[in-house]
Amino acid sequence: MKKILFLGGLLVSALAFVSCDDDFADWANPQSYPQEESVTLPGYTATAVTMPIDLAAVTADSVQVLTLSQATLPEGATVSNNRIELLPADGSSTEKITLDVDGQGRVAKAELQSTIETFYGKRPTARTMSGQVYSNIITNGQAFLVDAGVINVTATPEAPFISSGYYIVGNMTDWFKGTPISFSHSDADVYDDPVFTVTFSAPADCYWKIVPQSNVDRGDLEYIGVDGIIGVAQNGDDAMSGTLTTTSNSTDDGGPGAGRILNAGFYRMTINMLDYTYTIEEVAATYYIVGAMQGWSNTDKSCAFYPSSTTVQSYTTQWNGDLKFWPSSDLGNWDGAYGAEKGVGAVVSGKIVSNASNGADNIVPPTTGEYYTFTIDMGTMTYTWTKCADQNPATYSTIGVIGTFNNWDAENDVNMTAVTGAPHNWYVRLTIDADGELKFRANDDWAVSWGEANNIGDRNYGKGDTNNAPNITVPAGTYDVYFNDITGEYIFIAD
Q1: Contact residues for 392 (Cβ-Cβ < 8 A; gap 6+)
Q2: How far apart are CA 182 and CA 178, in angstroms?
Q3: What is the reported pTM?
Q4: CA distances from 118 to 195, 274, 466 (A)
Q5: Per-residue pLDDT averaged across 266-276, rounded?
Q6: What's the rounded mean pLDDT across residues 355-369?
Q7: How far apart are CA 144 and CA 139, in angstroms?
Q8: Which SS3 state, helix, strand or coil, does residue 39 take?
Q9: How many degrees, rounded to 5, is the angle at CA 287 between CA 281 and CA 292?
């Protein structure tokens, strides 16, 4: 940087530093100050604080990062507008961030935190930044930009402990006796993406806590501490959103309280571990038919029910045999399958029971070779058969998916596969590379198509309309997609 003499009188004087006003309010940079050239003043230098800064330990609004040496200024000279231009010491960015510095060498804590996050992210690791320090000195009505030198600032951003992974435990896992259910997470650093999600089936009056991966690693799932098991402040709190904690004294063991879900159902929990918050929402569980239509295969996932609410789901086809069904969490596990009460036979409505509770009979359609809608209500644990008014529904040679993901290419629909043993039901595994829209259509043509004003990210099921309906919005991802061309019902099941 260009060095020019800074008033001959200053160079031969024993200069004493005149401190600037400590108030942050006077840091505005006057427009008359030169920004391109600077001068160096012998003895006027910045020195970094000797100890690394841990912002988690800073309780004030500002934190000292440097000191300025003392020098003598001419009578009436003032120093103002101290600032430091920061860059990451590892060279990962060339975009400088300027922070104001008060007369005691302090910067605003929030601004230093933000700067570290911009350069390095939010992980609480000591980070080093290179800083060029400048001051403005005014004397005899003239303003001079003074170069006070380059220092290194090492600081650790403030952030809570975030484990690499989390698991939910509670009544649904027989607490610590069963297998904890893992939260899902992106591949990003947990401090850049602190959001984790898990979907689970809960019995009525279900209590829960969250186990961090760190507890798994230490071999103690129930460990209590700032990096230990997580819950809520008040044991039995049944709020569907709130604040998480590791340190509550609401339970006898001194650890956090257990959250509570009142009603049986299928739920998705989302936690943000940067601000330690949670939300719980009821979602539609995924249920698969197992029965005569696919040879009673306990690995077949071709017949997924179509939800109409979080508890009511149905399946429409031409029925030619008995069935049972199971939730996705118990696919292949006969103890987890559901069926009919023993001895009821072919009835139009009945009670759903589980194999695990003294066994269950097959559910029998009222007649065979005819079209029915089979509906299950997992809230009331009942099922019904409704005979279709049209026993000769329109047939299509193909059902395809077309949309943003293939540039609405009318020559290249992604054709679905007809489900064996379940006429008018279709399946395809579909990868969407970017958020977009799509529709279902028949015979690779727009004469018959289905759409709906629905975002799969908000509700993964719906019922398409053929009357020039809107497109369905689909977030990027890989899905098992199911469609029924009689009802227009569909479901997208994400990986």
Answers
A1: none
A2: 12
A3: 0.63
A4: 19, 16, 49
A5: 93
A6: 89
A7: 8
A8: strand
A9: 175
Radius of gyration for the alpha carbons in the chain, expressed in angstroms and rounded: 33
Q: How far apart are CA 364 and CA 303, in angstroms?
A: 17
Please name the residues in contact with 411: beta carbons below 8 A apart, sequence gap of 6 or more.
none
**127, 80 Cβ separation under 8 angstroms:** no
Residue 186 C-beta-side C-alpha neighbours within 13 Å = 10
Structure token digits, residue 478? 């890989």
Q: In sequence order, what are the residues at sequence separation of 6 or more whose Cβ sits closer than 8 angstroms to the Cβ of residue 495?
A: 477, 478, 479
On whether the CB atoms of residues 461 and 306 are closer than 8 A, the answer is yes
* Residue 491 CA to its chain's centroid (Å): 22
Nearest to 158 by CA among 220, 116, 219: 116
Question: How far apart are the two ends of the chain, measured CA to CA in Å?
Answer: 57
pLDDT tens-place string over residues 442-456: 999 999 999 999 999
State the average pLDDT for the chain. Answer: 89
Asked whether 236 and 256 are in contact (CB, 8 A), the reply is no
**Residue listed under structure tokens 């008033």:** 7
**Residue 56 has which token pair?**
């988690």
How many other CB atoms are there within 10 angstroms of residue 87's CB atom?
19
The DSSP result for 13-31, as a single string, is S--B--PPP--GGG----T
At 478, the pLDDT band (50, 70, 90 cuts) reads: very high
Residues 6+ apart with CB under 8 A from 439: 401, 402, 403, 449, 450, 451, 464, 469, 471, 472
- Is-contact 307 332, C-beta < 8 A? no
Exposed (0-12), middle (13-18) or buried (19+): which is 438, by Cβ within 10 Å? buried
Tell me the three state secondary structure of residue 61.
coil
The C-alpha atoms of residue 256 and residue 250 are separated, in whole angstroms, by 6
